[in-house]
Amino acid sequence: MIARTSWISDGEKVEEDHFKNLNWKVEKHELKFDKPISDTRKRWYGTGINALVRSDDNSTLGTVKNRYEIFQNEDIIEWTKPLTEEGFWKHHSSGSFENGKANWMLLNHDESEIIPKDILQNYLCVAWFHDGMRANVVLPTSIRIICKNTFNSAIRGRGTENESTINRIVHKDIVIKYEEVQQYWLQMTEFFTKRNEMFKALTDVKMTDLNLEKYVDVLYPVTKESSPVLKNRNNRVKQMVFGDASGHKELGIINTGYGAFQAVSEYIEHEQSTKVAEQGNYILFGNGKTRLVHAFEEINKFNKTA
Fold it and tell me: Which residues, at least 6 apart from 191, have a Cβ–Cβ distance to it below 8 Å?
């Protein structure tokens, strides 16, 4: 079994609500251009566009118009206080992707056991962005302990509210009131429960060797004319679904729908995305999320009760 590393390890554990790796601000610097008005003089003109600049290293994170209101890291910490002070959640870890363009904070929710010794650690993931383009959001997120696979709100069970309802927008003007916290906890608990039920149903889906090959071929199709890279990718994923994936042999999930999906998800996160520091960004917000949703949809076609 390959020892996998989670993107969480690139963050920092939160101790006593201290967020050392978020101790920086974002500033707006107006972009200007100059125009000569004589041989020796020039005049500077504003563009109405501002660079978002990280205060500790002066790196540019994005560009915005004048009206853009910065949501600082400290604002996020303040926003989560009702969640933690009511005792439902506890800060776990925090970190950044793309040098601070995307940032994350995990709050412990609970643990789930899909089958004996197969544990999912469930979190609320608070994600906020300093690139001027993406909306800040809270989304339920799980890490499978044995292989460090990540599952977000796009991977959900039957009857679960759609992703746009589950994911909560974070903004200074949208404050979680203390009386809403318990209801929010129940909503997230229901989400994890229904997602777990879907996973458990997949453990009962028996997959023949032929069906495992068909599943991989749908996700990573190849022809005789395909490049060696694509053929090698298809072969590697088949190796994983046939037993190379973490815990497959130990947990006895080879030739099950659950095992096939977990093998593919492990490949997507840990072998298609090679940089551990950016795996979370890839699987939560990038192409990895799209691939993971596709893999989940396809495996459920083998589940006749879906």
Answer: 140, 153, 156, 160, 161, 166
Task: Provide the 10 A C-beta neighbour count for residue 228.
Answer: 7
Give the closest residue to 74 by CA, choosing from 3, 128, 36, 117: 128
CA-wise closest residue to 298 among 232, 233, 224, 237: 237
What's the token pair of residue 164? 């746009």
Burial class of residue 123 (count of CB atoms within 10 Å of its CB; 0-12, 13-18, 19+): buried
CA 182 to chain centroid, in Å, comes to 24
Element (H, E) at 277: helix 276-284
Cα 102 to Cα 81, 125, 161, 232, distances in angstroms:
21, 12, 26, 32
How confident is residue 306, by pLDDT bands cut at 50, 70 and 90?
A: very low
What one-character-per-residue DSSP string does 191-223 give? Answer: HHHHHHHHHHHHHT-B--HHHHHHHHHHHS---
pLDDT 10s digits, 184-239: 898 899 999 999 999 999 999 999 999 999 999 999 999 999 999 999 999 999 99
